[in-house]
């Protein structure tokens, strides 16, 4: 599968689509999900063109991997989620019903999220 340059998150990254960026570093950005499933529902994506988790881990540099996860941790700190808890998920491919073919992590918090 090849990366689709027109996917909605690619459009956010290349500023074709205007979205408020919550937090950003060298290799990753975070923004609110358009259809939140919890009071806090943030999407964290790498700036590089990676379709899903395995694609990212197989091809990304150590810096790209580090900066993505450090951005997530920065959000956990900023929203004070260490004590209240949160859910971090990523959907990869067909059986997970991944909708947008650019790797993204969902950070959900702000209420009891129930069981998976
Ligand atoms: P997936 O099902 O691929 O794991 O999740 C894709 C997520 O992207 C969904 O939660 C959906 O609400 C969100 N989403 C889809 N289009 C947009 C958009 O244009 N802007 C933002 N901020 N989120 C989007």
Outline the structure in words:
The chain has 116 residues and is of the alpha+beta class. Helix content is 29%, strand content 21%. It is built from 4 helices and 5 strands. The protein has helices at residues 8-13, 53-59, 62-78, 81-84, and strands at residues 21-24, 28-32, 40-46, 87-89, 105-109. The structure holds guanosine-5'-monophosphate (5GP). Guanosine-5'-monophosphate (5GP) binds at residues 8, 19, 31-35, 91, 97-100.
Briefly, what is this?
The protein is α+β, with helices and mostly antiparallel strands and 116 residues long.
Any descriptors?
5-stranded antiparallel β-sheet, 4 helices, binds guanosine-5'-monophosphate, alpha+beta, 116 residues, 5 strands, 21% strand
Q: What form results from the Cα inertia axes? A: globular
Number of helices: 4
> In terms of structural class, how would the helical and strand content be classed?
alpha+beta
How many β-strand stretches? 5
Q: Separation of termini? A: 29 Å
Largest sheet: 5 strands, antiparallel
Helix content: 25-40%
The pLDDT mean sits at 98
Question: What ligands can be seen in this structure?
Answer: guanosine-5'-monophosphate
- Give, in spatial order, the strands making up the sheet with the most strands: 1-2-3-5-4
What is the gyration radius calculated from CA atoms?
14 Å
Strand content: 15-25%
Question: Strand-and-helix sequence, N→C?
Answer: HEEEHHHEE
Q: Please mark out the parts with pLDDT under 50 across 5 or more consecutive residues, or reply none.
A: none
